[in-house]
């Protein structure tokens, strides 16, 4: 009986490999994010360009919205057409995204505030408790509290009971 369990478990892990390498959907964050919540920003420096409707934050940048936090070396803020609200945040340099107990690191992140979608790119590492998953990209839907890992997804599956 134990031998049969090992064969079935090994087969499941072997078959999961190709599916994982193509993309994996996972939960992200403990709660759904309210994309209409105020965006709090802190940084060492801020340069504002009134002509283009953009601002660039540099040095120890921390962005907060509800329970979600994004930190990076540089963040560009893009405002909507009438410059009344933030439309998008583009982060680069040691990007960390934290929501609840989940944390992800990447080279860059693009956060569309209107849709609540975040695209992390470049050596993405997602840590959820004891589990770690790496991929080329991670798409986070903050409204749904879900994420999709894409592009050479790797993890270790524990097959112990």
Explained architecture:
The chain has one helix at 2-22, and strands at 24-27, 40-42, 45-49, 54-65, 68-79, 86-99, 102-112, 117-128, 131-141, 146-150, 154-155. The protein is mainly β and 161 residues long. The protein has a single domain, classed as lipopolysaccharide transport protein A fold (Sandwich). Strands 1, 2, 3, 4, 5, 6, 7, 8, 9, 10 and 11 form an eleven-stranded antiparallel β-sheet that branches. Strand 9 (131-141) and strand 10 (146-150) form a beta hairpin. Residues 1-22 have low confidence and may be disordered.
Key terms:
mainly beta; elongated; 161 residues; 57% strand; lipopolysaccharide transport protein A fold; 11 strands
Give a nutshell description of this structure:
The protein is mainly beta.
* Distance, first to last CA: 14 Å
CATH class: Mainly Beta
What can be said about the biggest beta sheet?
11 strands, antiparallel
Looking at the structure, the CATH topology is lipopolysaccharide transport protein A fold
Rg result: 19 Å
User: What general form does the structure show?
Assistant: elongated
Structural class: mainly beta
When the domains are counted, the total is: 1
Number of DSSP-assigned strands: 11
The unreliable regions are: 1-22
Mean pLDDT rating = 79
| Alpha plus pi helix count | 1
């Amino acid at each position: 009986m134990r031998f049969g369990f090992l064969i079935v478990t090994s087969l499941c892990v072997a078959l999961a490999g190709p599916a994982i390498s193509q993309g994996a959907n996972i939960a992200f964050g403990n709660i759904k994010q309210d994309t209409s919540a105020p965006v709090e920003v802190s940084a060492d420096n801020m340069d504002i360009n009134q002509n283009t409707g953009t601002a660039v934050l540099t040095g120890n940048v921390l962005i907060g919205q509800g329970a979600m936090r994004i930190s990076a070396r540089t963040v560009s803020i893009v405002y909507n057409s009438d410059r009344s609200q933030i439309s998008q945040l583009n982060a680069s340099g040691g990007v960390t995204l934290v929501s609840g107990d989940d944390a992800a690191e990447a080279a860059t992140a693009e956060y569309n505030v209107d849709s609540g979608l975040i695209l992390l790119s470049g050596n993405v590492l997602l840590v959820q408790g004891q589990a770690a998953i790496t991929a080329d990209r991670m798409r986070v839907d903050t409204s749904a509290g879900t994420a999709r890992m894409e592009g050479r997804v790797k993890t270790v599956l524990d097959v112990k009971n």
